[in-house]
């Protein structure tokens, strides 16, 4: 049987009396996009933050590639292959798009032997960095300072940086936020391909994107998962329609 890449078991996070995560169990399987949807305040960010290591669960287990992540901080989880973007921006605005990706490639390769070498002329860093920029469609913008890129382009640059770290799973927290229709469309196409690089746990309010992308959807309401299923199962689920999508959905 195929093992999940990420497995969450009976996770709970209390903020005082508030059960922000209330006995959540879910899996992320190889090759899939698993979308997590729910109304504002349902606990989506709280859940993602526990997976990334920004918040410590009250109880429960998070396993990544079979390993219990309890006690691992955010950096250790990132090194283990948990790729996360959109909440902590890792972009240096004064550096070119290329240089931003080079720094990530260098971090991945380990920089100790390169310390005194001029990074900008090191082909073993430039070539893989350009491959990442090409993959996200930013190759033609490689020389532009990151601070001058559009909002949508910075999203793509964040993905190129995340890709350089060779993730084994992606956590994407509202990647479509603030993008126009064109930006959402191209990011949707990119995420659809990225699932083959590493599976994606996707928190997203843009339901068009969710319905276009998700292999499975879990619906979170008041910290609890009320349903997990395919797009069709979730669209026709009576409790989901009542609690979240509305009867017109
Ligand atoms: N640090 C905190 N201390 C106390 N309560 C918190 C804290 N962080 C979140 N909460 C509460 O936990 C609940 C879940 O919040 P969370 O931000 O995870 O929801 P969300 O589903 O991500 O919402 P949104 O869609 O608006 O981003 C909310 O009631 C929120 O007010």
From TrEMBL:
It holds the Pfam family ABC_tran. It comes from the Bacteria. Residues 6-247 form the ABC transporter domain. GO terms for molecular function: ATP binding; ATP hydrolysis activity. GO terms for cellular component: plasma membrane. Keywords: ATP-binding, Nucleotide-binding, Transport. This is ABC transporter ATP-binding protein. It comes from Nitratireductor aestuarii. The lineage of its organism: Bacteria, Pseudomonadati, Pseudomonadota, Alphaproteobacteria, Hyphomicrobiales.
